[in-house]
Design brief:
The chain has 2 domains: 159 residues, no CATH class; 152 residues, no CATH class. The protein is 69% helix and 1% strand. The chain has 11 helices and 2 strands; from the N terminus they run αααββαααααααα. The chain is elongated.
């Protein structure tokens, strides 16, 4: 989260104060120039030129955040012995200086659009600010929403890996409580899962979920206390047709897993069709499917959280090109 009451004073207070002081000074200078010349100062006036240069420097700094987040700069705090600050400090400066640039641009333009180039530049600047504000809102709402509404949250890049682990757990549960299933049904699946674990070094990386995987209470005599397998082909058919695909990929062949309510209805119907001894497996497999459903929601929210950048960044690149053209045009026709 970009804004939090515990870190606002240390991270944002000085940049907010700087933005307020700079805006007040710019407004006073603009009004003073207005009174001297008797008309609204434009970009060619002394104050308009200074404010335009400051706004241009701010835009360059804003775009420099792209380089600050590259792999080479990400972990560096000093270059040539000079401190460059943390990425969080850069982001705080990015927010408040970007907002400061809005009134500076308006004052620089004299509240007029001008020709086609300056009009396009002004509208593009407005789109960049709007997309940045949208990203700021998303990055303060969605992380809290994920934490509060998705207790099974895990590392985004590991969601599909954890899902395949869930699928393997579901197959083992079915074989333990409902018999081995039809001959050769799970041979290909188990071979593929074993190969994937071998490629991954037999290590599964999981984030910080509250509950991930099949939860089995340990007992001192686990082998002796295993329930006898009961023949229940209905459970194996459910795994073959729906459950394994949903746990592995997050997508099912039908709408039976499109919501939490549908998942519960699906397994309630399945309980009526299998033998009673297979009920413990159904309970645990249902829990795995509910966890996988939450992870899919986390994945969707993660995409929303970051998709705004695919709009904000191209607009920023276009803005920089138009800004360069604006500067050269101003120097050429000055």
């Amino acid at each position: 989260m970009l804004f939090h009451r515990d870190t606002f004073r240390s991270l944002h207070a000085r940049w907010l104060a700087l933005a307020i002081v700079a805006f007040a000074a710019s407004a006073l200078a603009y009004v003073w120039e207005w009174r001297l010349i008797g008309a609204l100062p434009g970009g060619g006036s002394r104050v308009g030129l200074v404010l335009g240069v400051v706004a241009g420097i701010i835009c360059l700094f804003e775009f420099a955040l792209v380089g600050r987040k590259t792999r080479w700069f990400r972990t560096r705090r000093r270059i040539l012995g000079l401190s460059i600050g943390s990425a969080k400090a850069w982001m705080a400066a990015h927010i408040w200086l970007g907002l400061l640039a809005v009134p500076l641009v308006f004052l620089h333009s004299g509240f007029q659009f001008g020709g086609p180039l300056t009009t396009a530049l002004a509208w593009l600047f407005a789109l960049v600010i709007a997309s940045g504000a949208a990203g700021l809102v998303l990055q303060n709402i969605l992380p809290r929403l994920i934490t509060d509404s998705i207790p099974e949250e895990t590392i985004y890049s590991q969601i599909d890996t954890v899902g395949r682990q869930f699928a393997a757990d579901a197959v083992r549960l079915a074989q333990r409580y409902a018999g081995p299933g039809p001959r050769g049904l799970w041979d290909d699946f188990e071979s593929q899962f074993a190969a994937e674990r071998g490629v991954a070094g037999d290590v599964l990386v999981v984030g910080a979920p509250r509950r991930v995987g099949t939860i089995v209470t340990p007992t001192p005599h686990g082998e002796l206390e295993k329930p006898l397998a009961a023949d229940s082909p209905e459970l194996h058919a459910a795994l073959r047709d729906q459950v394994v695909a949903f746990l592995s990929t997050g997508r099912a062949a039908s709408a039976d897993f499109s919501s939490v309510a549908r998942i519960r209805w699906y397994f309630e119907d399945l309980r009526r069709r299998v033998v009673r001894d297979a009920a413990p497996a159904i309970d645990q497999i249902e829990s795995l499917c509910l966890q996988r459903r939450q992870m899919e929601r986390q994945k969707n929210l993660h995409v929303v959280l970051h998709c705004w950048l695919s709009v904000h960044l191209p607009l920023s690149v276009a803005l920089m090109w138009l800004l360069v053209a604006h500067v050269f045009g101003a120097l050429l026709y000055a």
